[in-house]
Amino acid sequence: xxxxxxLAGGLAFLFAAAAAPLAxxxxxxxxxxxxxxxxxxxxxxxxxxxxxxSFGQALYYCIGAYTVALIVRxxxxxxxxxxxxxxxxGAGIVAALVGFLLARYREIFFxxxxxxxxxxxxxxxxxxxxxxxxxxxxxxxxxxxxxRPHGEALGLSLYWFTLAIDAVAAVLVGAxxxxxAGSLATPIRDNEIRVEFxxxxxxxxxxxxxxxxxxxxGLGGALAALTIGHVDPAMSxxxxxxxxxxxxxxxxxxxxxxAFVGSLxxxxxxxxxxxxxxxxWQMVLGSVLLLTILFLPDGLGSLVARLRKREEAKP
Length: 315
Known about the structure:
By secondary structure, the chain is mostly helical. It has a domain at about 30-235. The chain has 13 helices and 2 strands; from the N terminus they run αααααβααααβαααα. Helix 4 (about 80-100) runs antiparallel to helix 9 (about 200-230). The longest helix has 27 residues, at about 150-180. The protein is globular, with a radius of gyration of 19 Å.
């Protein structure tokens, strides 16, 4: 069934795709990074609905990026479709393995353990010279099923490619939220013991959510690596994970679309803050987060719910 929200989301994606050729090159590049990172935020939303906050999503983001970079570097294979898929699979495998551990913990223990795993990867990458150590290494220009664009055409191709993956991810995650496992997120957050009494394994559901968030993080990292053309250990550092949590708070867990809007708003605010006030841009981001918590505690996604309530209240 096509709802008003689905129709609005589809039109928004079509508008974003159609407007790209008319936008400046720097806007397209910024939007590509924002929409790539939005996949990581979407994974955090999947966890957040269950009451879990991960400060280590940079682990999967970095694995996805390095998977792409290493395949290109060692094999010369550059097809973007296969590379991004392999980045997501690689991150998903790691998430499935660490999920056996993470699914046993809740609240601050879940957050800190995920952060520790991310920092372990950071330490390994920094100490490994064959992986570029602190400098990382570059990623060659990708191809698209044999098509090898350059210059402005490359930027547009990466943007449309990222947008298409975002659209597929949004549809699949939306379907997951409407499934039985997705619908149990709030009951698990409120009282998981009662859910266990229903015969449902909460640990297994949380493990699944960790894997979903890991795959989304890997896809985001793979797209970011192709867009930036470079990978380095900072992709797994705690500040990277903190940025994703920042955007999740800004977006809220109310809707799938909020993850993409919040990520785009964050990148725009950060870019303009760095350009206008290079010495105070962190303060600007902190102020935005403070205002969001004070006036929109449920994030930007809650604006849609508020407008809907106002329409229903009208005679």
